[in-house]
């Protein structure tokens, strides 16, 4: 039982890493209707900015806030001067552009700060506590609670605020939104800015657990996309629950399903995706889209 609890706790900790990046992907999709593959690279860039500010002598929390502000501005500028050229065209072209942007950002990070592992300071203490016989780090508990808080904020943003409703309207039908008097261009910039700011928070939460490198988000991005498919693009709560589910099932399968083991546990989320896409294509918590002709 002790081993089982430890595996579940570790799975929730890993799932929280996937969840924070998945939330940023959902946010930009709900605000612009796009899937942003560059989200992981933007989180890495903001983490490096935070790290350099801390190295310069600023307190960690101040460095994170400045990185969040800078990320919001950079995200808005990227939408205005780069992505806007592709938003009205073929969606596949826009996806390819975000993949290219991911490669560019990680390459720039490696060029500026090398590919060596860097130690990123943690917001939370590093000691562990015992919960039902399992050793749990305070950092994992803090990350878990931070993910819950971010999830609730994002959910409230889209369901309970005028800004969130306007962002959703622009993402669904920008032409009708413009006819209704909504500032479509500024809302698209705000959506990308908010997603980039959330990516900055993701980088600050994840970097202490993974060590800071230009490619630290590559694997997490794959799992985050799996969580988005499983949970549904329209549900912040759904993608977080899906990310935790992936983390837990991956750990349990590695130990208790012998033909999978640790070598094949990466296949677990893809098996889940295959099953969910057959049974419920909109995701476990997503809404079915009805198109009237």
SSE arrangement, N to C: HHHHEEHHHHHHH
Strand content: under 5%
Strand arrangement, major sheet: 1-2
Number of strands: 2
Question: Radius of gyration from the CA trace?
Answer: 19 Å
Alpha-carbon distance between the two ends: 55 Å
What helical percentage do the residues reach?
over 70%
Task: Determine the structural class based on helices, strands and strand pairing.
Answer: mainly alpha
Mean pLDDT: 85
> What CATH architecture do you see?
Orthogonal Bundle
Give a short account of the largest sheet: 2 strands, antiparallel
Q: Provide the low-confidence segments as ranges.
A: none
What is the tally of helical segments? Answer: 11
CATH topology: ABC transporter involved in vitamin B12 uptake, BtuC
- The tally of domains stands at 1
Which overall shape is indicated by the principal axes computed on the Cα atoms? globular
CATH class group:
Mainly Alpha
Keywords: Amino-acid transport, Cell membrane, Membrane, Transmembrane, Transmembrane helix, Transport
Pfam families: BPD_transp_2
GO molecular function: transmembrane transporter activity
Protein name: Branched-chain amino acid transport system permease protein
